[in-house]
């Protein structure tokens, strides 16, 4: 009987990420390790060892794999990160093996934990496994939101105090209290900020902006739970500096404060805490208006439309998007952002023509000359427009075109945008279920799951919960069994 594939931990190192990515693309193309190896003139055993991060991949082989698998160069680009990270990984003996007993997670004594669902609070018993920390997502009130397999098989989300989750995990593991890396959900005491910072070699405005850029890069790769505490701490420090500043310094610090607030809103949106996301977006609009940063105000209004789309509120999505477009410079990227998020609102209402026209309008802008003089939103490109269009096509039931659009979007993503890759893969999996069948859908879902576990992205877990429900008709398919068992291993369970 063939051995089950080793569970991969792409967050552990760049080499582990590379192996998980290679396995995803191989399964998506329905190739065995031996078949893929033969296509690039190496053994199937070498492919297996690269997937398990036991052997490095050489640049020439990565390029050959990209060509055979049609990845758009993902593996060759990812190899740059592998080289920088090659010597930073600890030994296997220094880590608990979370992959053992995937089908039988360690159990604790049943405890009564609050579950919030459809506005109701009820108590249910849970089996808590240490791996459940992988699906834990930050909430603003100091609690965590964790994916849970209900007794009827559905995936829901439970909200509980972080300490209670960690106590349950400790009981399950029979060990000393666990410290989840990056899962610091309470703000540390604010340190005093010296007024002398305003006259240091680097102005605090530029210093905090540089720190924010670093946190954005960290969020791209590690997810929101690893950076949200730092972001809120920086907001408080900027507020302190504003107390001692005057004139242009105070205005510029207010703009920096607004930039951090908008970023904080995004972190909570990705964590699934929509109320907190709305709170910080409102602060960003207020503070950017006070600072006179119109471009940031428009940007945040467009982002509020995106948030309303995630909350599946089509009217608010359209109204907020149109508000952003009204105050944005015509044919600017900020105007295109409003068009994109408004297009999804139209899709949620079932208006395919309005959705298509809005996407075409946005695509025309981003494909045109870049001379609007606005620096915010430079990440917006044709690939992003098409990824959002694919999401709307999925909402409209056009699964074939949605699956093709998501595949192009995944190929076009930079390697560092790992969390976005997980979102696209999870959404693609739902479209692929209808367009290509359960095997392809489950393979994409499994690839998205390893990213969701590493980043704690509620957007990914929410899409995977939809996929899981749809896959219940194919519980005898091997790929579906593997996906559902892996999903079970990072969730709480009703008892």
Automatic annotation (TrEMBL):
The lineage of its organism: Bacteria, Bacillati, Actinomycetota, Actinomycetes, Kitasatosporales. It comes from Kitasatospora aburaviensis. Pfam families: HTH_31. Residues 83-116 are annotated as: Disordered. This is Helix-turn-helix domain-containing protein. InterPro entries: Cro/C1-type_HTH, Lambda_DNA-bd_dom_sf, TPR-like_helical_dom_sf. Residues 22-55 form the HTH cro/C1-type domain. Residues 83-98 have a biased composition (Basic and acidic residues).
């Amino acid at each position: 009987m063939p051995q089950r594939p080793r569970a991969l931990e792409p967050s552990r190192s760049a080499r582990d990420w590379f192996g998980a990515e290679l396995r995803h693309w191989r399964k998506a193309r329905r190739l065995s390790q031996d078949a893929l190896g033969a296509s690039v003139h190496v053994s199937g055993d070498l492919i297996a060892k690269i997937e398990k991060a036991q052997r490095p991949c050489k640049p020439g082989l990565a390029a050959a794999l990209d060509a055979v698998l049609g990845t758009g160069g993902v593996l060759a680009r990812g190899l740059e990160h592998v080289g920088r990270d090659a010597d930073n990984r600890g030994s296997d003996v220094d880590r608990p093996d979370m992959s053992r007993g995937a089908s039988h997670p360690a159990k604790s004594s049943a405890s009564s934990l609050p579950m919030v669902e459809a506005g109701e609070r009820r108590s249910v018993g849970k089996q808590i496994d240490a791996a459940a920390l992988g699906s834990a997502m930050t909430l603003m009130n100091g609690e965590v939101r964790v994916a849970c397999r209900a007794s009827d098989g559905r995936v829901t989300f439970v909200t509980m105090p972080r300490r209670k989750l960690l106590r349950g995990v400790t009981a399950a593991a029979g060990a000393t209290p666990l410290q989840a890396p990056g899962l610091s959900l309470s703000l540390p005491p604010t340190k005093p900020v010296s007024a002398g910072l305003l006259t240091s070699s680097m102005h605090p405005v530029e210093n905090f902006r540089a720190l924010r850029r670093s946190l954005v890069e960290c969020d791209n790769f590690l997810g929101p739970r690893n950076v949200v505490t730092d972001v809120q701490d920086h907001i408080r420090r900027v507020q302190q500096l504003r107390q001692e500043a005057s004139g242009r310094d105070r205005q510029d610090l207010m703009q920096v404060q607004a930039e951090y607030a908008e970023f904080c809103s995004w972190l909570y949106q990705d964590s699934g805490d929509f109320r907190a996301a709305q709170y910080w977006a409102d602060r960003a609009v207020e503070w950017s208006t006070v600072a006179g940063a119109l471009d940031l105000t428009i940007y945040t209004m467009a982002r509020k439309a995106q948030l309303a789309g995630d909350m599946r509120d089509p009217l608010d999505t359209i109204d907020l998007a149109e508000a952003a477009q009204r105050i944005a410079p015509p044919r600017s990227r900020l105007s295109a952002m409003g068009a994109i998020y408004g297009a999804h609102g139209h899709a949620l209402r079932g208006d395919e023509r309005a959705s298509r026209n809005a996407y075409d309008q946005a695509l025309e802008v981003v494909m045109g000359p870049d001379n609007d003089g606005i620096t915010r939103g430079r990440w917006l490109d044709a690939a992003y427009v098409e990824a959002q269009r694919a999401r709307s096509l999925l909402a409209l039931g056009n699964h074939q075109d949605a699956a093709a659009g998501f595949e192009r979007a995944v190929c076009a993503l930079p390697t560092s945008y790992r969390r976005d890759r997980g979102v696209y893969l999870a959404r693609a999996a739902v479209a692929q279920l209808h367009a290509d069948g359960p095997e392809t859908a489950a393979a994409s879902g499994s690839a998205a799951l390893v990213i969701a576990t590493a980043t704690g992205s509620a957007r990914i877990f929410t899409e995977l919960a939809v996929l899981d429900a749809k896959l219940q008709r194919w519980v005898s398919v091997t790929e579906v069994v593997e996906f559902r068992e892996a999903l079970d291993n990072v969730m709480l369970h009703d008892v």
